Amino acid sequence: MFKKILIANRGEIACRVMRTAHRLGIATVAVYSDADANALHVTMADEAVHIGPAPARESYLCADKVIAAAQRTGAEAIHPGYGFLSENADFCRACAQANIVFIGPPTAAIEAMGSKSAAKTIMAKAQVPLVPGYHGDDQSPALLKQAAEDMGYPVLLKAVAGGGGKGMRQVWSADQFDEELAAAQRESLSSFGNSDMLVEKYLTQPRHVEIQVFCDSHGGGIYLAERDCSVQRRHQKVIEEAPAPNLPASLRVAMGEAAVQAASAIDYCGAGTVEFLLDTDGSFYFMEMNTRLQVEHPVTEMVTGLDLVEWQLRIAAGEPLPLQQAQVQVNGHAFEARIYAEDPAQDFMPATGLLGFLQTPVETDVVRVDTGVRQGDEVSIYYDPMIAKLIVWGENRQQALQRLALALTQYRIAGLTTNIDFLYNLATSAPFQAIELDTGFIERHQTLLLQPPAGDPEEQLGLAALYILLDRERVAQASANQSADPSSPWHSTGGWRMNEPHLQALALTYAGETWLISAEQVRNSSGSSYNLSFESGNRLNVSGQLNGDELSANSDGFKQKLVVAEHDGLFSAYGSSGAFQFATALPDTGEADAGGPGGNPRAPMNGRIVALLAEVGSAVAADAPLLVMEAMKMEYTIRASSAGSVTAFYYQPGELVDGAAELLNFEPEA
Ligand code: ADP
Predict the structure, then answer these.
(1) Which of 142-151, 359-368, 491-500 is the least confident region?
(2) What residues does the ATP-grasp domain cover (predicted)?
């Protein structure tokens, strides 16, 4: 076995490979760009070598720099992860020339599968079933169009050199063909430097089912069950599961054997994945073979109990396959959800930003988090916006799915937009639970999947208000503790007021609107609580404790724990039934002062002017009442923040005012 390996990658896959290497007693070398100097994968590695600026083209994609790093550190082998150099035949060849083991298949196998059309030719010879289509060398538009017409619309145009869903276009009728062909060719040329196309019959309701294969250098080859990756957006996977549900046993074997046949046809070695489209009638067709470890490999690990990276290392070191086909066992069910910095509502547009707050579910035997980031890290424009993979196991699909939903509520990120709510909607949706799987799933159920998280607004606002009120108490307490006379009544955080209830007005933004809440603090034998009143007239009694960012709340007898994170003025509250966001709208206090640092006093909320208590132009003392207004059936007194005088009132008794409106002009005493 190797003593030291280099991982030519970053992020979660680099960290994941290191976990296994360290468990096996293998030292690890990381490589990093300028953007990743303090990244998790660098911290985890035993050694790390800087290989250039942030853009991947100048760092992670530079074969010579990666090989030089291996030579400098004495690493005997390179694990390429996925993406970057993992399917680059030139890199594989360069490793061999430098006498470094490439932890992956032989160069020839990468080359054979590098072109989608060449791969189809090889597979046709090996009698692996193919999607009907044209994959020839003649690229004249007229011939491509004729091929489309012969097989019948709809068809799919695919970049021969493609990957990641780029250069792929559906064509539904002959009159669209020329336009779509030109677009696909342009996209392919700019992404892959080659505009060759293949034309395939477009299956309208297929499942994406792929087989994990492993071959060794002694002629052995087996398959390690299948994965269903049908839930996709823009032809890219979102949630994967193993095994594929509702797959007849005979079909499972047929697909497994076809996959091993495909691998043998190219003298494969190491970990590979053969992707198939499974049609509604049970026919399956070879789509492509990925000659590397897949992003979604953990679901296979969860159901087989095997470590696929360990297998890769053993096989690359020349060992035979650890198991025979008959010894492979599949136990239970596993899901992987890809957590992305992206906005599902904006057609899954990638997002960037700082992970201002990050809390992940606790890892157990049945919950696994593969990630390469920590709180405070940045999701930058330079790399893939995947933040993490959340993987769960259950005795059956239903249990695993329930665990996935719960773990998603425990995955808490603030600071940038993520797809977590979308994934939660997906995991809890009736059609996904009912195994209505095909590659059109997300598009078909878009409205259902994009709906905002459920939750009673007033219930959630009650929790938000409680948090703000307890936080104010905490701040007041802290300043009291610092003062010379902590027992001074001026620092009291209790609700005591002479002859009047202690009322506070809150204005919170929530779900895109401003909500006004009045809070009356009441003291009782077990501490204090707040009676909240909403504009609807509804009331809610809330109490609780705030410990760091953990809020233990009791609203009308319903107790729950939440974590509240603040980032850039936006609060995110995470509870067992999902997350919600809120912010304090200005102004946020009902005890508005005249002329504070913010200038003239403003209405704390929408309301009506009741009385003007000062005479225009006359001197008043600090704290003198100036104006009374009424909102939500309660009165608020606006007082002078210092000695001075009112030079104008902007409203008369009986008039309505909007929240935040300036009420009067106040001149403090010089
Ligand atoms: P890429 O390498 O760009 O990821 P693939 O060939 O792996 O492209 O295909 C990606 C996805 O595109 C598949 O999972 C499937 O959803 C869809 N797809 C590919 N070929 C077809 C086809 N002939 N009919 C219908 N959908 C297809």
Answers:
(1) 491-500
(2) 120-317
231, 287, 289: which to mutate for ligand 1, most atoms within 8 A of CB?
287
Largest CA distance in the chain: 100
Judged by phi (left if over 0) then psi (alpha if -120 to 50, else beta), residue 381 lies in alpha
- For 324-377, what is each residue's pLDDT tens digit? 999 999 999 999 999 999 999 988 888 888 998 999 999 999 999 999 999 999
Please state the pTM of the whole predicted model.
0.82
> Quick check: 495 pLDDT over 90?
no
Q: Which residues line ligand 1 (CB under 6 A)?
A: 131, 156, 162-165, 168, 200-203, 206, 208, 232, 235, 275, 277, 287-288, 439
Q: What percent of the chain has pLDDT over 90?
A: 74
Domains annotated for the chain, with CATH where assigned, are 4-103 (3.40.50.20), 132-201 (3.30.1490.20), 209-449 (3.30.470.20), 457-478+493-584 (3.30.700.30), 607-668 (2.40.50.100)
439 CA closest ligand 1 atom index: 16
Q: How much is the pLDDT for 597?
A: 47
287 Cα nearest atom in ligand 1 = 6
What end-to-end distance do the CA atoms of the chain give, in Å?
Answer: 83
For residue 166, give the ligand 1 atom closest to its CA.
Answer: 3
Active site residue 314: no
463-488 per-position pLDDT tens digit: 999 999 999 888 888 877 876 666 66
**326 DSSP assignment:** G
CA distance 201 to 156: 6
CB of 532 closer than 8 Å to CB of 519: yes
CA–centroid distance, residue 604 to ligand 1 (Å): 56
Which is the closest atom of ligand 1 to the Cα of 116? Answer: 6
The confidence score (pLDDT) of residue 594 equals 44
Three-state SS for 33?
coil
Residue nearest to atom 22 of ligand 1 (CA): 202
What backbone torsions phi and psi does residue 529 show, to the nearest 5 degrees? Answer: -140, 175
115, 131, 168: which to mutate for ligand 1, most atoms within 8 A of CB?
168
